[in-house]
Amino acid sequence: MSMTATRTLCFTLAAIASGAATLSVGCGSATGSSASAPTAATKVDASRYTLAEEPEGAMGVIDARDSVEDGASLVLVGRVGGAANPWVDGRAAFTLLDPSMSVVANGEDSGSSELCLDDCCAVDRQKCTTLVKVVDATGKIVPVDSRELFGLKVSDMVVVKGTAQKDRSGNFVMLASGVYIRN
């Protein structure tokens, strides 16, 4: 090998080693920055949607379905649940079950205030549950999972304040501006 070829090979190897070191630092930096990158929950101020005190005048889901008009201000109380998966992944939305009702295991005998999550109770479940969507000032759903934003769990008793949304078919959704979690 000639002297020129040896120098060229050395420069090439040095350049490759330098690039590999740069990539290595770059990869290390990227990993470090993604670990400290803010999550969706840290970008949203949960205190904007968390009620410090329980609002008065709460009604259950069953009563609200029967009596509240579309667009009415509403305070609603219930338990997170009433569905096999009461969560909307990545969104501040969940299913709320009337506080007078409870869920029993599928196939278990149920009383008048109990229902299961199987098809046999689907119609009854629809009458005593609603979807709660926590919305911002522009009416858009908050893009953070309720479990992450509020620390909610299935069967937590909550009181939500907001506006009823009903359509002609009787579908009922709660557009919540605030959530209070009972202890």
TrEMBL record:
This is DUF5666 domain-containing protein. The lineage of its organism: Bacteria, Pseudomonadati, Planctomycetota, Planctomycetia, Pirellulales. Residues 1-20 form the signal peptide. It comes from the Bacteria. Keywords: Signal.
